[in-house]
Specification:
alpha+beta; four-stranded antiparallel β-sheet; 4 strands; 19% strand; binds adenosine-5'-triphosphate; binds magnesium ion; cytoplasm; ATP-binding; nucleotide-binding; phosphoprotein; ATP binding
């Protein structure tokens, strides 16, 4: 059993899509074991996406992530990291497979509705960024 950090991004919370996205996770066998709606500051968004700070889209990405509330959540299940990324679909919705969250809901490569951790090491760090051990049962 594995855990991964998921974020429902501002483009999706703005369009009231949290429930539809959560249904995709649950249908795939992922259990939402922690969840909260928060509004990131620019500093927090910048720290969370620090790995991308040299990329040309970093500023735009941080401004977008701080532009409206996000829903941060921990998903649990067998191979949760890979399974979540499968349900999310490719970063660019134009490349995403049918039935994936990004294919159905994303606006663009930047406003792509969801984030998911990409490896066990990043999942551990990203879960601890938003949740204390007491919030995870
Ligand atoms: P995430 O990390 O959000 O789960 P990902 O792992 O599929 O997405 P990354 O390469 O880690 O993609 O990029 C992080 C985020 O940066 C993307 O989800 C997207 O919101 C944004 N991004 C990536 N590439 C571009 C781009 N070319 N233009 C604008 N924004 C981009
Ligand atoms: Mg990534």
């Amino acid at each position: 059993i594995e855990r991964t950090l998921s974020i429902i991004k501002p483009d999706a919370t703005n369009r009231n899509l949290t429930g539809k996205i959560n249904a995709k996770f649950e249908e795939a066998g992922l259990r939402i074991i922690a969840q909260k709606r928060i509004k990131l500051t620019m500093d927090e968004a910048g720290k969370f996406y620090e790995v991308h700070k040299e990329r040309p889209f970093y500023g735009e990405l941080c401004e977008f992530m701080a532009s409206a509330p996000v829903v941060v959540q921990v998903l649990e299940g067998e191979s949760a990291i890979a399974k979540n990324r499968e349900v999310m679909g490719a970063t660019n919705p134009a490349d995403a497979a049918p039935g994936t969250i990004r294919k159905e809901f994303a606006n663009s490569v930047g406003e792509n509705s969801v984030h998911g951790s990409d490896a066990p090491e990043t999942a551990t760090v990203e879960i601890a960024f938003f949740f204390s051990g007491l919030e995870l049962v």
